[in-house]
Structure formats: C-alpha cells, structure tokens
Amino acid sequence: MIKNVLVKLEFDGRGIVNNDSNDQKWVLKGTHLKAYHDNVTFSKKCFYKNNDPDVSNDVDYKIKISENCLLKNAKRYIELAQVPSIIHNPALLYSAIASPEALVCGYLFPSTTGSITRSGALNLTSAIQTCNAKSVLEVFSRSGQKKSNDGTEDGGDTTFYFKETVGDIKYSATANIDVMGLQFIPCDIVFDRYQINPDYFQLYKQFLQKKLPNFNSELGYYQLKDSSIEIPEYGVLLSNENIVYLTKFALKLLLGINIAKKGGYARTSSLKIKLVTDPLDHIYNDENDWITVQTSKDIEALDFNAHKFYKEIDLELAKKFRMEFTEKIAECKRIASEAKKEKKAKKKKSKEDSDE
Amino acid sequence: MNNYLILNFQNAKLFRKFDKNKKNRRTNDFVFSRTSEYVSRDFYPSFVEPITVHQISNMLHVLFNERPVPSFRDVVYDRVESLFEKAQNSYLKIDTPKHNNNDFYYETMHVRKAVTNAWNPSPPINWETIKRYIDDEDKFITIVSFLNKTLNQDVTIISADNLKDLVQNLDTKTRLELYELITNLMNISGLIYFFGRFNNGKFDKPDNSKLTCKLNKTAKMVNRGLEHVAVLSGQIIVPVTDDDINVIKNNSKGFAKILDGGLVFIDSVKNENNIDINGFVKVSEISDEKTKPAKNLII
After folding, report:
1. What ipTM was predicted for this assembly?
2. B136 and B209 share one domain
3. Which of A186-200, A289-303, B229-243, B253-267 has the lowest mean pLDDT?
4. What is the overall mean pLDDT for chain B?
5. Are B22 and B70 found together in one domain?
6. Integer distance in angstroms from the first to the last C-alpha of chain A?
7. For residue B194, what are the domain limits?
C-alpha cells in the first residue's frame, strides 16, 4: 500500500529555457556575468554563498528551470481552460476539471459565485543544473521599426541587447506524487477545500466515468484516519483503481516534459521512482529501492495499491457532528460580532474623549 | 535519549514585500477571500520573518496526518497543542543566502492574476462576448434588429470589429439614436463605450475594455502577471518521541509542504548525540511579528 511516490528527474537540454528579470545584475556584480546595461536577459538561477577564499566574488550560482515552467509544460491543456467561455459554462468547466490532468495538477477557477480550487497532487521542485556548463552574456540585435516611413530620417528602433546563453546542459529535479491528495475530491467549505460544487456532482460524475476507469464513487462524508479533529468532510473518495490510474498518469506527464523555446530546449532524460510504503524507510536520500522508468510501458507495468487515508462516516453520525459544528460556528460568529461591537464602541469612546 | 527528525525543505516560495517600517508594500492587486469578496492584497499581513513557528507547526500537522490551522483567520477547529510545542522546540536553518539589504534575492515569476488585476485595455471582442455581456436574448435581438435596419445588412455575419467601424461612420443623429436605445435597455452601458460614448458634444474613441469588465460573464478572469518571489531551502530538526515515529510510520504520507510549494522530505531520524545544530536557530526564538497593512482597504 503506497503512501506517496518519490521521483528523481533528470533533464537534458541546450540553451536557456527559463528567463528571469534583469534585477539579477545587482547580485551578479562580482561575477563574469556582470552587466552595466538594463537591456539584459538572464536565466533563472539558484544562488549560493561562495566559501572559496581564492575566488573574489562571494556569490556562486547554478542555472535552473523553475517548477512553474516545468509544470506549465506538463499541464498545458488545463491552462487552456482558463477562458470565460469555459469558466461560465458548467458543462465545459466540469468536463475540464474532471480531466486526469486537472485531478493530478490541480486548478483554480476564481468566481464571485464560489471559487473552486484543487491543490495539485504532483509536487515538483525546480530543476537545478548538475553539470559544469558555464553561461555567458552574448550580444544580440533586434530589428525595430523605422521612425519615419518616408525616408526623411534614418533612425529606428533596432537595438542591441545582451542575453545569457549556454551550450549543452543537464538538470535534476525532485518530485512527489501525493496519494492522499489524489484520493479525495472535497466539496466542503469546512476545511477550505471546495474543489467542486456538489450541486453539479451528477454532471461531474458523467465526465469522470468517461475519463477514469470504472469510476463509480458517490458523494459522502469522510474523515482522515486517526485525526484528532472529528469533523467529517463532504466529498468524493476515489477507488484504488482510479488512484493507480491517476498516479501512472502523473508519471507519464513527468516523463513527457519537453520544453521547447526559441534557442533552447529541455526534456526529461531519466525518471526514477520510489514507491513509499514506510515513510521512514523509503526516504529520498537512500539510494536503494529506486525504480528506473524509461517508457510509458514501464509505467503501465508498475504494480501497486494505494493506502487509504480516509474512512467513511455514517450519515447519521456525520449529521450529528455537523450539527455540533454548525452550533460552534454560530457561537464563534456571535463572539466575533460582540468583539467587533466592543472594539467599535471603544474606538468611538476614545475618539469622543480626544475631541473633548 | 531524545530522538530528532531531520527534515529537508526545498523550493519554498516566499511572496511578501514590506518596507523598513514593516508595512506591506502598496500593490494594486486584489485577492479573493474565502467568501469570494475582493480584498486588497496589501491589506493582509504577513510574517516579518520568512519562516516562523506557525508555518513549521502547520507543516508538522500535515506530516502527522492532522489538519493545518490557518495563521491569519479563525477556523472552527483548533491546532494540536503538542505539535505546536514540538514546532517551538525545533531548530531551523535556511540555506538560501541573503544579498542586498540583508534580504533574499527575489526572482521574477509568472503568476495568474484574477479579475480586477487582469484588466486588459484592448481585449478582442467578438459576437459571443457581446452576447454574453448583454445576457438577455430580447435586448440582444432589439439591438441587432436596430443595427440591421440602420446599416441595411445582417450585422451578425460581419465581425464585431467591422461593426464598430461601420457604426463610427454613421451620422451623429443615427449614432445618438443607438446611444439612446442602449441607454433605455438598461444595464448594458458597456456597449455605449464599445461604439464610442457621446461626451461633451462629440463621440469618444471606442473602448473594448468595458465589455469585458462584467465579472461573471465576460471578464478575462485569469491573466498572467509578474510577481517577485524568494525561493528558500534549508533544514528543520524536530524533536520526536517513539510514539511520533510510530505515527509517521503508520499514518503519515511521509512528506509535507512549507510556505508556497516548498517540499519537505524526511531525511533521517537521529538521536541527540548525532545532531549538529550549528547554524540553526531555535524556532521559539524566531519572532512571529506581523507586517502592517499598507492601507485598510476592503472592497
């Protein structure tokens, strides 16, 4: 029964694929990348303190690709759903959020009538350079419009600018697939996790049945096993078969990362996973138990079951808990309102005193 | 002999900017509150220190299979005091170096921005946008019929941009009739701006943006913007008992998150003779002072 999946990723690439602002020039002052101009494009970097006394600059760096850049490439289709015509059409919206990509990578659809948001179960760190490739600032030119169209003036907007470049480069990143996050789709505001509107569940279910194998879960009340907070949460618990499918889907997303930009690319070259059944034995820094995955077939061949983090609560019991909870909320609201009134009165009184 | 859990964290993103008076830096951004209200982002306080006992406590709550408790708003459930105490007795080391002004380097990243921040001065308009904006079949038909009659053609088969140009070429009297018709239909004044508002005796230039400011219908809800973020990594040493180790072994998912997207992995369990707290700070000694709002703004 796996509790999460640890992933080691390696990337091959050439050139810079993820850029940062030119604020970096203040940090890179003492390095060979020092720039006196504003028109400079730097790569994203990790900075380290340089403890070598023989080196004049105190900052060392490694080129990186941010996890946002990696994730954006992995979940490019759910990004496309961020348009009004999809957001405001329940059928299209629930079709989008029922996709395996949305279930794995998460989503956020803000709305005045109830935002829906799901945290991604696929967690990534930035990919950090692992080789010794040194980047340099190169001069490039950009053609611009002539200022006058009739030829009376020769000036134009053609500019020279600096851009950081690098040759062949390797990166590594770590990732994690959160089985607990994958297995539950809450639609309850109690824990601030409103991932779907329960009123649209039947619509949502239709799409899930098309996109997940043998999906047949229903809405119910669930609680984290052994949690000290006894408040059942309303939502949908996915079956083991669905969780395995989504975990494999997440691994395929990672295997398929291929960032292509003008002048550079980076793509997954190696993927190793560790199926965690005991969090204290299966740790990231231990070299044992890693499984190398090279193709989608390797992913399909993986055999595992997911640990069940939630237990179902009987409807009657859930109702009882919810009743107590509602009373507690009302009490909290009353106390907050009284405190607010008291504060207001105090403020008014102090104002009157100062006026006198 | 006491045992300690060694945790490594990477990629913890810190979004916050405040001035030397510990006041949030002014921003035009708005965020959605839980009740779907827009609140100015600089109204919300943040901690002055990058990582405090509250973040570590919440991280431990997740690691020990409990619910994290928000630091800046009330919820109906309480934190687990033993975990909060554990957080206070932990040690923290941030490896990310500080640079100018004794602050971290803030890199630039793309973020999604919502509604009021995502204002687009010249969004492309098409018939679907117009229909969604009007949001009333009768009103839509009334306007289309008027335009069909005035321009003597079926306006729905030409593009909204071309329609705008054709309306601009009409004489003032006809344009004023259209202006009046839109005004009488009520609640669709964005169309007046789309065709050019009559102001001080002349027509303004057309403004597309008013058609995309109706929040639930046509707004460009999520645009990309730029934000500055510091990315932190480091280590946390947490005192644990044998019971805690059992909880992690049996119930924990084995990892947690800290700040925004920071992954916390278990490194090892060591006894007190084998841990080195050089360079670490005891978490209870880290101040949990909060920044002040730039301006009290709630919309």
Report:
1. 0.84
2. yes
3. A186-200
4. 84
5. yes
6. 72
7. 121-215
Chain A stretch 248-307, residues whose beta carbon is closer than 8 A to a beta carbon of chain B: 276, 278-280, 282-285
Residues from chain A contacting residue B249 (CB–CB below 8 Å): 278-280
Quick one: pLDDT band at residue A125, thresholds 50, 70, 90? very high
Q: Between A and B, how many residue pairs show a Cβ–Cβ distance under 8 A?
A: 152
Question: For residue A284, which residues of chain B lie inside 8 Å, CB to CB?
Answer: 8, 265-267
Report which of A304, A185, A311 is spatially closest to residue A245, judged by C-alpha positions. A304
In terms of domains, do B41 and B85 share one? yes
- A193 versus A134: the higher-pLDDT residue is A134
pTM: 0.82
- Asked which of B181, B215, B249 is the last residue of a domain, the reply is B215
Is B63 inside a domain boundary?
A: yes
Interchain contact, A279 vs B222, CB within 8 Å: no
What pLDDT, in 10s, does the model give residues B25-81?
777 666 666 555 667 777 778 888 999 999 999 999 999 988 888 887 777 778 899
Residue B81, domain member (yes or no) = yes
Smallest Cα distance from B173 to chain A, Å: 35
Asked if B15 and B156 sit in the same domain, the reply is: no
Strands, E, within B15-126: which ranges?
30-32, 38-40, 91-94, 107-114
> Residue B38: beta bridge partners?
B32
Taking residues A211-231, report their average pLDDT.
88
Task: Please state the domain count of chain B.
Answer: 2
Listing DSSP states for A322-353 in one string gives HHHHHHHHHHHHHHHHHHHHHHHHHHHHHHHH
Q: For position A273, what pLDDT does the model report?
A: 95
Q: B195 and B171, same structural domain?
A: yes
Is residue B204 located within the same domain as residue B138?
yes
Confidence tier at B83 by pLDDT (50, 70, 90): very high
Q: Tens of pLDDT along A72-106?
A: 888 777 777 777 678 778 899 999 999 999 999 99
The CA distances from residue B248 to A177, A286, B69, in Å, are: 17, 18, 19
Asked if the C-beta of B245 comes within 8 angstroms of chain A's C-beta atoms, the answer is yes
**Would B292 be classed as within a structural domain?**
no
Listed by start position, the domains of chain A span 4-313
Chain B hits for A27, CB-CB cut-off 8 Å, are: 99-100, 105
Q: What is the largest distance, in Å, between two alpha-carbon atoms of chain A? A: 85
Query: For residue B59, what is the domain's CATH number?
Result: 3.30.70
Angle at B273 between CA B268 and CA B274, to 5 degrees: 35
